[in-house]
Amino acid sequence: MTRQSYAPEIRIVRVMCTGRVDLAFVFRALQRGADGVIIGGCWPGECHYVTEGNYDALGNMHLCRKLMRHIGVDEKRLRLEWISAAEGTRFAEIMSEFAAQLRELGPLGEGEGLDAADRKLRLESLSRLVPWVKLVEREKLRVPMRTEDAYREYYASETVDRLFHELIASRLAQIQILMLLEEQPLTTREIAERLGLE
User: Side by side, which strands form the sheet with 10-13?
Assistant: First the structure.
């Protein structure tokens, strides 16, 4: 099968408000075979609820992409788009564009050079990490302003990178080590090689 004939599996996360989109939804979709996930929501400033949930979705998307990069999954497999209910043509164009982008990336895992076992380990470990990530996000990674630029700048900052590695990446490594040891006994060297750790 060529990449052009490959039909990617796309999951559309649909909830009343994008603020209700949980990181677990994205990771679960990828675990269950989706090659990409797209989240569509109201334009910032046009939220139908007082929560301005689309900014929560924006923060989750930046955090999710950081996690995907960390485990070696292309972050382009997750997309957040602002689309109002009156923009059907725009929605169709975005979906077609996203499908073409995923076709170019190839099937999840294969496009990243991960075998099935590594892909499963990495995605399942992210799902197990979600409760911890929510706690860290709530306590340490709140964006002080509600603008798209503020979120983009904040999640690209050295402060967030440091917190990510200290609080999230280290916990993820612990989870992955325990998952490997649940399967079979391994030496420290075998674990380090399998996870790419020092």
Answer: 10-13, 36-41, 78-82
Q: How many helices (H) and strands (E) does the chain have?
A: 8, 3
Place of tokens 């910032």: 44
Global pTM value: 0.88
Residue 126 neighbours by CB under 8 Å, 6+ apart = 27, 67, 71, 172
pLDDT tens, N- to C-terminus, the chain (198 residues):
555 567 887 766 666 778 788 899 999 999 999 999 998 888 887 777 767 778 888 999 999 999 999 999 999 999 999 988 788 899 999 999 999 999 999 999 998 999 999 999 999 999 999 999 999 998 998 887 778 899 999 999 999 999 999 999 999 999 999 999 999 999 999 999 999 888
